[in-house]
Amino acid sequence: SEVTLPQRLREAGWNTFFTGKWHNGKAAFQRSFGSGAEIFFGGMGSHTKLMVHDHQPDGKYPDSKRHPLPAFSSTAFADAAIRFIEEQAIIEEQERKNEEQERKNEEQVSDGRNNPFFACVFFTAPHDPRTPPTKFLSMYPVEKMPLPANFLPEHPFDNGELKIRDEKLAPFPRTPEVVKEQLAAYYAMISQMDAQVGRIIDALQETGLAENTMVVFTSDHGLAVGSHGLMGKQNLYEHSTRVPLLITGPGIEAGSVCEQPVYLHDLVPTIADWARIDAPEFSEGKSLVGLLNGTSQQGRESIYTAYKKVQRALRVGRWKLIHYPAIGRTQLFDLQDDPQETTDLSDHPDHQETRLDLLLQLEAERVAAADPLKTP
């Protein structure tokens, strides 16, 4: 029943489009998107045999209307997005001609009307099964793959999720050979997806839409693939929580880097702010527009992260504290000197004040976030 960001944009007259993976319910999807193609309602599946839907105006998506993807998943989703972009370019060109004719006929200045669009391209890659096309797998010979700098055969203690499916994708203890094989496939999946993102950007440029389009590239969480003796994403180390976030658009300086910590849910008010509409009422984030256009340097002072009932973390400046409530254990890392989080300083006598301060801040953040799991 919550109002989504694309729903709010659609209500404001935007053409909202979707392709890729959606698992937030079909009712929310129907409220949010006026068009779409190659839509996968699910969590994970084959990248070559995925069953998908075309957009259905009536909101009904029975299995009988599914069809197999016509290409590798990332390629098929990019193809759908490019078709949409090309259609938008035709619409905008026709509107431009109509406005020119109106000005000639009525000698009026254009009122600036346009047909704004919001396109979501939600790739299933690089989620397993990791079955990249041979062309991309050949880019990463297993024997030449470097191990992560924080590789461990096993995690040093039970973090509460060592028996989950992702952790069983490789045997215990982890071996360099298996980790290198997994990394090669992981990188190949990412590179194949990256090539499709490039095709989408090319389409925006070739159609003339790029100069007035905001593009956001991000991800949810990264896999450990050998880092800290883990394989999955069910942890709060930097390799899993510090996800990519690249944004381009009018007024954003090319090549600029913002070091301020942000949340992914900051994207909801950011896009709403950019589109000059009100963000949905549920939105908890903060607009990043000031950081993007350089009018503000004020960001967040800390980042609070949580995973189920077993892990909580707080990052403040150079310091990162991870707390494991079930076993009463903490880790303390100096990310400035130790970005790979290999040296736990939680028991170091010189850092006890920092550790206690961060534990108090962690509890304050928990309360502010209405997180029901109490920390000591």
What does the model show?
The chain has 376 residues and is of the alpha+beta class. Among the domains are: 1-124, no CATH class; 302-376, Arylsulfatase, C-terminal domain, CATH 3.30.1120.10. Helices cover 31% and strands 15% of the residues. It is built from nine helices and eleven strands. The strands form four sheets. A four-stranded antiparallel sheet has the order 8-9-10-11, with helices on one face. The protein has a three-stranded parallel sheet with strand order 2-1-5, with helices on both faces. Helix 3 (73-106) runs parallel beside helix 5. It is globular, with a radius of gyration of 23 Å. Mean pLDDT is 94; it is low at 108-113.
Radius of gyration, whole Å? 23 Å
Distance between the termini: 36 Å
Q: Structural class, from secondary structure content?
A: alpha+beta
Strand content: 15-25%
Work out the helix count: 9
Overall shape? globular
Strand order of the largest sheet: 8-9-10-11
Low-pLDDT parts are 108-113
Mean of residue pLDDT values: 94
Number of strands: 11
Helix and strand pattern? HEHEEEHEHHEHEHHEEEEH
Q: Considering DSSP H and I runs of 4 or more, what fraction of the residues is helical?
A: 25-40%
The largest sheet, given as strand count, sense and whether it forms a barrel, is: 4 strands, antiparallel
